[in-house]
Amino acid sequence: xxxxxxxxxxxxxxxxxxxxxxxxxxxxxxxxxxxxxxxxxxxxxxxxxxxx
Length: 52
Hints:
Number of helices: 3
Strand content: under 5%
Largest sheet: none
Oligomer: single chain
Distance between the termini: 27 Å
């Protein structure tokens, strides 16, 4: 295993970014309505603490 992989930290900010990317993909592929997309963004950004 490379040391680069071991040193990478997956924090809440990284998690939020990945989740938002996934939501955007779902929305672009018409798997979510605009309302669902906006609601999920609101939920994620309020639930995931990125201040740490």
